[in-house]
Amino acid sequence: MTADSAPGMGAHGTRQVAGPETFPAPVDRLLAASVARRFYLENQSKVDIAREFNISRFKVARLLDAAVAHDIVRIDITVPAEIDAPLSQALTERFGLRHAVVVNLTRSEGGASAPGDPRQVLRWLGTAAAQLLSEIAEEGDVLGLDGSRAVEALGEAITRLPSCEVVQLTGVHGPDLANDPAVTAVRRTATAGGGEALPLYAPFVLPNSATASVLRSQPAIAETLNRFAQVTKAVVGIGAWETVLSPLYDALTEQERETYGALGASAEMAGQVFDGAGRLIPTESNARMVAVSAAQLRGVPELIAVSGGVRSAEAIRAVLKSGLLTGVVTDATTARRLLWQDGPDATAQLRDAYAVETGTAP
User: pTM of the predicted model, to two decimals?
Assistant: First the structure.
């Protein structure tokens, strides 16, 4: 009887205490390295590896463990963020969402939650949104993406999708229509699944409604606009109603900003403005935009918002109250603000539950 056929048994049939794999000869290290290469780099199964090297699958498992223990294989987790499952679940339940992904951004030392550089926040939120979209997208879906910075980050992170059409939901913000980041995000996302990209080669906000109407009637632009009604899943950004955080805010005149402000503007999403109670604020600027309408957004079966960082909680809460969203991707600090500022009773219960689940209860 060989050691392979009777794991854990000595030469005379006595049971031995299992311990770390040792390497008395160089060939053992070579074998461990070869097994690890097949498993980690070539994605072969343990059964296939065992068959190739004429050893048992139990020994394959032991060699893989030993390869890590003896520094033959080094596992390095380079992403400085992780998913906060308790907060994700709490958001889902509290706001009646189908999907909630909360990214816990951590410092390199101490593991404390930190908002960090806004660009880094968007980068990791975009990565999380890309992963969520990869999981829920199905072949034949029509995906909608707006021109927010969060969705631009999604476009940079997306690597795989089933075959889907990808439609741009809002016009571009810069002068280079063909190479705007929003157009690039649509192209990259479509490429990830080998589907068709339908970019929107038009400015987001035009000087007047007549110009906007003419552009919307152009064949290439009209083709994209006509697909809005077929969008099955969409990812959009949410911005607080202030400069830099809202693309629409920066595109409007001072008088238009004051008009929105007087009506209680709190948040902007895909060119639509919401007050603190989640009500849409219609104004004349809607006629100057090349973007998805509020009615079309309401008709999207899966509408997922990506937003986080400083001053984002109130904006997200406003849009959540509208009832448009089925999913949210945000950071842990923002998620806690959403939950703990939503009423005294809910605040205490959610804070206590989170403390118990994370081991931080006193």
Answer: 0.73
